[in-house]
Amino acid sequence: MEVGIIFKIGAVGILVSVLGQVLKHSGREDQAFLTSLAGLIVVLFWLLPYIADLFETLRKLFAF
């Protein structure tokens, strides 16, 4: 796994938390929730190739 993806995930986490706090304090809780959900979806799309590679490796490992 690349180290850069960890920094990207951290940056998205910081950005989403700051935006969420700003939106919550301005009374827009629904948009804060959608911002958090969008951040989660972006991170999952980044991790999807790594998860697929993990399952492929496990399949090859336990194949008879």
Notes on the protein architecture:
The protein is built from 2 helices and no strands. With 64 residues, it is mainly α. The protein has one domain. Helix 1 runs antiparallel to helix 2. The longest helix is centred in the C-terminal third of the chain and has 33 residues, at 29-61. 3% of the residues are buried. The model has no long low-confidence stretch (mean pLDDT 93). This is Stage III sporulation protein AC. InterPro entries: Spore_III_AC, Spore_III_AC/AD. Keywords: Membrane, Transmembrane, Transmembrane helix.
Key terms:
64 residues, mainly alpha, 2 helices
Task: State the end-to-end distance.
Answer: 27 Å
Counting H and I runs of at least 4 residues, what is the number of helices?
2
* Oligomer state of the chains in this structure: single chain
- Pick out the low-confidence regions: none
Rounded average pLDDT:
93
Q: Strand portion, in percent?
A: under 5%
Rg on CA atoms, Å: 16 Å
Tell me the overall shape: elongated
What is the count of β-strands? 0
The SSE string, one letter per element, is HH
Helices and strands: which structural class? mainly alpha
Q: How many structural domains are formed by the residues?
A: 1
Could you give a short account of the major beta sheet?
A: none
Portion of residues within helices: over 70%
Protein name: Stage III sporulation protein AC
Pfam families: SpoIIIAC
Organism: Blautia liquoris
InterPro entries: Spore_III_AC, Spore_III_AC/AD
